[in-house]
Amino acid sequence: MFPDLVCVRTPLVNFHVLKDDAGLVLLDAGFIGGRHYLREALRERGWEDELIRGILVTHGHLDHVLNVASLAQEAGAWVAAPRLDRERYLDKERSRGWSRVAGVLEAIGRPLLRFRSFTPDRWIDDGDEIDLWGGLRAVHLPGHTAGHTGYYCESRRLLFCGDLFASFRGWSHLPPSILNQDSAGIRESVYKALSLDLGGVVPNHADGAEPEEHLRRLQSLAARLRPD
Ligand SMILES: [Zn+2]
Q1: Domains (range + CATH), the chain
Q2: 161 CA distance to ligand 1 centroid (A)?
Q3: Are 133 and 147 in contact, with CB atoms under 8 Å apart?
Q4: Tens digit of each residue's pLDDT (9 = 90 or more) over 29-47
C-alpha cells in the first residue's frame, strides 16, 4: 500500500494508522482485541514508539469505536468524529426500522464489552478539511448510519470509505440491511464516492487486496446497483 499507512487487520474489522511528521493518527479504533492487534501492527512496522496524537472516526458502530475512549485517554489523543452519529458516541442512540436489529445488538454489546462513551474534541461535517497525512477531506456517505463519513486524500486519489461496502474476493456487497439506518441512502453514497477522482478505496471490512482492486470491486458493485 503506502509506506506511511498501516492496515490493522483483525478477524471482524480492519482499521488504519496514518503517519506523518506530527505522529500517528488512527482511522477508527477497532473492536474486540483491537488494542492488541494495534500494538502488534505498530511493532511490526517499527512504529511502537511513535505518538498516537489523534483518532478520526468514520461512524459510530461499536466495531469501529469500542476502543476510542480508552486509546484516546491512554495516549492523550484528540478524537474527531462525524456530528450526525453523536448519539452513538454518547451511548444514547435509539434505532428505528430495520436498524432496530442492529440497535438491539449494540444495546446488548455495549455493556457486555464495556463500551465507554466519549465526546469528540472535534465534530466532523461534510467537506471539512483535516490537516494531516497531506490533507484529508470529510465526505459524508450516509445510509449505513446517519453520520457515516469517508476521508478523501486528493493528492493520493484515495478514499477511506469506512463501511460503504465490504470487499472480499468474489464476495463484495453492501452492508446488510439489518445493519443500516437507511439502506436506500447507501446507493447514493456509492455514486457520490465514485464521483471523486479515485485511484483506490480502503474499506474497513475487506481482505488484503490493494486499494486499486477494492475500487474495481466497488465499481462493479455500483454497476450492478444501477436500475437499467
Ligand atoms: Zn458499521
Answers
A1: 5-225 (3.60.15.10)
A2: 11
A3: no
A4: 999 899 999 999 999 999 9
